Amino acid sequence: MASTAPVIMRIMASSIQTAKLAGGIIRDVLKQGDLGIVDKGKNDPQTEADRSAQRCIIASLTKKFPGVKIIGEEGGSDLNVCDDWLVEDLDEEFLQKSCPAEWRDAKPEDFVIWVDPLDGTAEYTQGYVEHVTVLIGIAVKDAAVGGIIHQPFYQQPDGELGRTIWGLKGLGTGGFTHSLAPPGEFIITTTRSHSNALHQQALNAFPATKILKVGGAGFKVLQLLEGKAHAYVFATPGCKKWDTCAPEAVLEAQGGFLTDINGKNYSYNADVEHVNRQGVLASVGENHSELVYKIPRKVREAVGV
Ligand SMILES: Nc1ncnc2c1ncn2[C@@H]1O[C@H](COP(=O)(O)O)[C@@H](O)[C@H]1OP(=O)(O)O
Ligand SMILES: [Mg+2]
Ligand SMILES: [Mg+2]
Ligand SMILES: [Mg+2]
After folding, report:
1. Is the model's pLDDT at 305 over the cut of 80?
2. DSSP characters for 42-78?
3. Residue from 191, 261, 281 to probe ligand 1 pocket by mutation (most atoms less than 8 Å from CB)
4. Which residues are known catalytic residues?
């Protein structure tokens, strides 16, 4: 099965296992205590967990899929890793599923894998570990098609740490229970560490009954999927393609939308600009275009249409 399944199914099944191992590395770095924080820019920390998790993910996926382009947040990594960090196995349960017809013939050169080894780094360094996710996004040509969102610090009912959510357009999602957000309310989830005046202007334009401020693009999209919020608003540049590729694919596989603040999906081919200049707007589905028109024109003009 493993060797005959379509490439996209093998990439997804391998990414599920790889994200779990990366999650273990992230927990280990925290346990050992020295985070090795480096500032990449304003409000843009990197830790030993970001660096090590990226090495594990990119080394494992490069070895398994040598013809596939992989782009990671932390730049060029040393792929010479110990055997313990090389993930060989595929998630067998996922591999049993049938591949949607539209992706069956996609070839290695059609893919770009966008890796955010640790989303929510600021929150990780501040102890908000439940906001942290590992994101592996799978694009085919321009589109975000598949995604893995792994939560290293999610506590399972049996006490075990870690949960892995996946989504593939045309197939569906797994690893969590989908819920609808409460009707009659309008709950927005948004940044807690990258706000500015422009973003605040957009937030003020929504009739929100509650605003949740949490870290990470992955965690905010999980809040939409689990019915904790109706919309995710981030009306300024700051997020990059590795922040949104996996969340977009998972959310859209569940019937939602993740676009820029003009309602347009980003492109995820290997040549795109990494920054998502036009911000992020995500919702569970029914009224996405109405949300787009709530954002003031001057905010839209400031980020560029
Ligand atoms: N100004 C910024 N500089 C660097 N990364 C940003 C910025 N804004 C957002 N991000 C990335 O997008 C994620 C979601 O943003 P926020 O938590 O503010 O809503 C952040 O966790 C961070 O990813 P990462 O933690 O992987 O560096
Ligand atoms: Mg970062
Ligand atoms: Mg990120
Ligand atoms: Mg990151």
Report:
1. no
2. TT-EE-HHHHHHHHHHHHHHHHH-TTSEEEETT-S--
3. 191
4. 50, 121
Residue 254 CB less than 6 A away from ligand 1: no
For 163-207, what is each residue's pLDDT tens digit?
999 999 999 999 999 999 999 999 999 999 999 999 999 999 999
Instruction: Cite the beta strand spans of the chain per DSSP E.
Output: 38-39, 45-46, 69-72, 111-119, 133-140, 143-155, 161-168, 172-174, 187-190, 210-213, 231-234, 257-259, 280-283
**All domains of the chain in start order, with CATH:** 7-174 (3.30.540.10), 187-303 (3.40.190.80)
Per-residue pLDDT at 285: 80
Task: Judge whether residue 63 has pLDDT over 80.
Answer: yes
Question: Which two structure tokens, joined as six digits, stand for 293?
Answer: 């028109």
In this structure, what token pair is assigned to residue 195?
Answer: 């706000």
Ligand 1 in contact with 196 (CB < 6 A)?
Answer: no
| CA angle 243–212–239, rounded 5-degree value | 20
Task: Return mean pLDDT, the chain.
Answer: 96
CA of 243 to the centre of ligand 1 (A): 8
**b/e per residue, 74-106, with b = 16+ CB within 10 A?**
beebeeebeeebebeebbeebbeeebbeebeeb
* Radius of gyration of the chain, Cα coordinates, nearest whole angstrom: 18
Mean pLDDT in residue range 43-52? 97
For 216-234, what is the mean pLDDT?
A: 98
Q: What is the DSSP letter of 10?
A: H
Quote the CA–CA distance of 15 and 138 in Å, as a whole number.
Answer: 9
CA distances from 232 to 161, 176, 284 (A): 26, 19, 9
- pLDDT given for residue 174 in this prediction: 98
Residue from 232, 244, 215, 234 nearest 288 by CA: 232
ipTM for the complex?
0.99
3-state secondary structure of 298: helix
Averaged pLDDT for residues 50-68: 97
Q: Is 116 annotated as a binding residue?
A: yes
